[in-house]
Amino acid sequence: MIRGLKGWLSGGGHLTGEELLAYLDGEVPARRRRHIEQHLRQCWACRVQSEGIEQAIAQFIGRRNEQLLQMPSPGGWAGFEARLERARREAASAWPVSRWWWRRDLRFSLATALASAAVLVIWLQLASAPKASASETLQRAVSVERQYGARAADPVVYQKIQLRRRAGGRLATASVETWSDLARSRQKAAGGNGLWSELSLVLRKNRLEGRPLLSAATYDAWRRGLREKEDRVAPARLRDGSEGLSIRTVSREPGRVDAIVRAELILRKQDWHPVEESLQVQGEREIREFELTEVDFEVTARSALAPSIFGDIPQPVPVTRPVPPPKVRVPAPPEPVRPDGDETELLALAALHRMRACLGEPVEIVRQASGLVEVRGLVETSERKEQIVQALTAVPGLGIHIETVEEALRESSAGPPATAEAPPAAAELVRGGPVPLADRLKKHLSAPEITELSNRMVSIAGDLLMHAWALRRLDQAWPSERISRLPAPSRWLLEGMVREHALALRENAGNFRRALQAGRVKLPEPAADPAPDIVGAAQSIQSSTNRLFTGSDLPSDSADTVERELRALAGALQGLEAQSRRIEALAAGWSLAGSNPSHSEVRKVRQF
Amino acid sequence: MLDGDALRGREPASALETAVREVFVVWREPVYHYLILMAGNPADAEDLTQETFIRLFQEVSKGRRIDNLRAWLFRVAHNLAVDLSRKPSRDRAEAGALERMGEQRFDPAPDAERQMLERERRECVLASLSPQERRCMELRAEGLRYREIAEVLGIRIPTVQTLLGRAVRKLAGGTHD
Known about the structure:
The complex is a heterodimer.
Chain A: H1 17-24, H2 30-42, H3 44-70, H4 80-102, H5 106-127, H6 134-151, E1 155-167, E2 170-181, E3 186-191, H7 193-205, H8 216-224, E4 229-237, E5 243-251, E6 260-268, E7 273-282, E8 287-301, H9 341-354, E9 363-367, E10 373-379, H10 382-393, E11 398-404, H11 405-410, H12 438-441, H13 447-477, H14 480-484, H15 488-518, H16 534-550, H17 559-592, H18 599-604
Helix pairs in contact in A: 1-3, 6-8, 9-15, 13-15, 13-16, 15-17, 16-17
Chain B: H1 4-8, H2 13-39, H3 42-61, H4 69-86, H5 89-93, H6 97-106, H7 112-127, H8 131-141, H9 146-153, H10 157-171
Helix pairs in contact in B: 2-3, 2-4, 3-4, 4-9, 8-10, 9-10
């Protein structure tokens, strides 16, 4: 029994448990709140009861976290992109439907009804289809692929594949053409850029190099290599609406880095030809998902190709096909309509946020006099440039001007773009010099451990400052009046970014506290004056951290000066955590408040 | 408030799709946590989480106005989970090996007895909560305000307050209702 809860509904002027809980949850009106606060200052019993409630909540959260930890993480969110794509097409095709409907065009209504009936019939057929095992299904598809050799001497499989890769919430796309020489297990590819290189590496590490992509035989080779696995075969609907079969296999072996841990192959039911594939690959810390969609497919006799085959890439000469399959053509997406400037800017901002280019990298979004939104920036490497450009190309109507340092140096006039308020450079890490806290730390830690701890503290303080500056920049760029004009999806983007920075701040603040605890450094009661804003708090944390752990501006291990810095640190940490919670609540308010968020409410917590 | 009308004239494709994708990245974990604790099945939870965001895209595409994104997402997720739980168990059993895989991954260790005891201990405390109390607590743990919880579960705000109060009292070891 947690102390203090016996008198949950006690009388005698005490607060009820429900009322205390609502108070702790910030759910009582301001006037009542003041009354409760006054009562709590006077009443020990209610204070103890309030602590009991906090303990009960902490226990619940602890148990809940235990449960969540024991449950599997989601399997990489496979298939969401495909589902969204389907929904988008349905929505796009529904536009004329709705307009016609409003004109009460009976012919169209009838057509819609017939189409629905047809879909229902197909669904019923699929639902009643007999189930086959993954081995049987694959064997059948592999046997079809074996006919390539029977129909063309020395066959070369030509494939054009749309590649998508999702990792850590980022999406990259590319198109690749491959020629696979089946007899010699070799392959030539064109296009695909870095994405193809990445996939090739994965295929090599899984011993699938040189094999055709999107092939039942290749899939079967990977699947057979797994000692422990689980399969599922299910009906599937192809992008062109025709029937298909999906084979999903999950490896039950411990996933080493770059191993394919889960895959799905989708066969066209008409001719058992694979048209889509999804590969989930174990990364260092996350699952990467590759999605492959067939755009074109031909089987070509090698002798019919130019002699420079596998030297210069020739155009394939189609010779034969296994079965006359209807060629899979991915329908061209509808022409996107350019969103207005604010929306474009937010989409660009969200893409940069996802690439973590909002954390101090000299990349900025500018609005030209013509109204065109442009992203300009200077990055260190060509790989980084490619990453950022790739992320930004998904944003319609955006100008992109990203240079590497090398490129900028080549153009003598080029320099780093000016930013509204550039964050200061991160502090240098400690390299083993004396730290003012040394006397306290060396009671528990060795010299290398002290250096390691100091580096960690300085690093976390730097991260805190970067996220605080990112919030400040969002605050400056998006005043409440501007937010109120945004359509809801754009406000969601903004809310999401603010929320993630606020969460990162709190996580880093928690890490900071834990690291101090590891060094047995106890923070005193915080100083009375909280930092004025979130950047001020983060700067204060960084200054105190530098003084305490790098010795700058703090000449000796004077107990008074150390104590003063620790007190300032405690105050800044507390202020930063409180501010980040308020900011998160504000961002939620953008969605909660609807299209016209209350400006007074917004102003209350402006000035990040 | 979601301006479906404003988006209509411009075709939702690019801006809305990107926005939903970003919203998915930000909110999928909280929604998944709610669903996996409610449905108890990883495959179902993942599927329903994705479906929730697809519904978001579909509804906004149709011009639907959404006043409170967070409450809307959890309400749809909740309703999808309720619908699924009403399906005959035979249908759900056919969902296949992936579900069973999830269950196996949930309890993969050879030391099953120890795990069972641990789970019993944990569930003994949580089992004292009624389903509504548990849902209120889960939603509150995900940061929802009382009025949002009321919206998700289709109940009144004072009822949310009562359910949460009762749940906390039970967890603290007080009288069980």
